């Protein structure tokens, strides 16, 4: 190798090293940034009153084609599957045939009525019991700016499957990190009184990280690596979802106890506190 070629190689390696150093510095700076949240919610539902959930805040996903996970329920918009009373939202999964589906339930969504980019999102809920139940409080992108799932991301604030009582999961899914390729990022914590008492499930979402908590105790952190939307698609508005599925690839991994139904999840409130940015 001649001197000119060697010099070119040295310059190339130096450029790579400088780029890596800059990326590391950016990452360190991002982790060092302090973020705060407003003390008053900008959007909330306390589930006061009686009847169906507030139509100004919630819509429904309807149908029963398995929802990508071979689930058994048909989601309806009927009061028998989702109603507000005594200051609570109750979502009920019933052993009740709807077409080819042996169960009915509900999946409430705030899409187009409550869409958020960054913030502190908190649910206070009491979780169901019964093998075959799969309860979730979570978020999906409203516009899928980076493409269909999982390219635009998913934030699971709380997931609980009935065959593993009390084990509560906080997870994110992206193109690089998702359960289909067994790279999803998440943690879990045991909540002994998950079905007998209400607990608070929340995420704090900033441009630099997503952190999950149960009753203010930290459970999970996912950092923005600065490598683009395949790992961090969380730079766009997301909406809220609350649902109780039956069976499916995960919820039904150890079968479904038909005698456990009807089963229900109760939600005391949903509150969204905006991120304060300079």
UniProtKB/TrEMBL annotation:
It comes from the Bacteria. InterPro entries: Beta-glucanase-like, ConA-like_dom_sf, Glycosyl_Hydrlase_16. Residues 1-24 form the signal peptide. Keywords: Hydrolase, Signal. GO terms for molecular function: hydrolase activity. PANTHER family: GLYCOSIDE HYDROLASE FAMILY 16 PROTEIN, GLYCOSYL HYDROLASE-RELATED. Belongs to the glycosyl hydrolase 16 family. This is Glycoside hydrolase. It comes from Pseudoxanthomonas daejeonensis. The lineage of its organism: Bacteria, Pseudomonadati, Pseudomonadota, Gammaproteobacteria, Lysobacterales.
